[in-house]
């Protein structure tokens, strides 16, 4: 059995026992969309006084279609994938 199969078997076993979360290269996948300032502003933040490009958390509000598209790329996983690009732990 190859290394890949061993890893997937372990993940499947863990998924049977508990909820699993994965957090990874979401920012990289978002960058591949080549978004512009207006994508980050949307209608809601169109008059915001500061530049917002690169604040990927805003895309959940201004471009949820992008977050959905990027999240769909991980659908083959039996894991819950969350958009926590700027998550800060206290």
TrEMBL record:
Keyword DNA-binding appears in the UniProt entry: no
Metabolic or biological pathway, per its Swiss-Prot or TrEMBL entry: Amino-acid biosynthesis; L-methionine biosynthesis via de novo pathway
Organism superkingdom: Eukaryota
Domain Hcy-binding: 20-71
UniProt cross-references to Pfam families, sorted A to Z: S-methyl_trans
An annotated GO cellular component: cytosol
SUPFAM superfamilies, A to Z: Homocysteine S-methyltransferase
Gene Ontology annotations of biological process type: homocysteine metabolic process; methylation; tetrahydrofolate metabolic process
Keyword rRNA-binding among record annotations: no
InterPro entries xrefs: HCY_dom, HCY_dom_sf, Met_Synthase/Corrinoid
One of the record's GO molecular function terms: methionine synthase activity
UniProt keyword list: Cobalt, Metal-binding, Methyltransferase, S-adenosyl-L-methionine, Transferase
Family, as annotated: Belongs to the vitamin-B12 dependent methionine synthase family.
Name by which UniProt lists this protein: Hcy-binding domain-containing protein
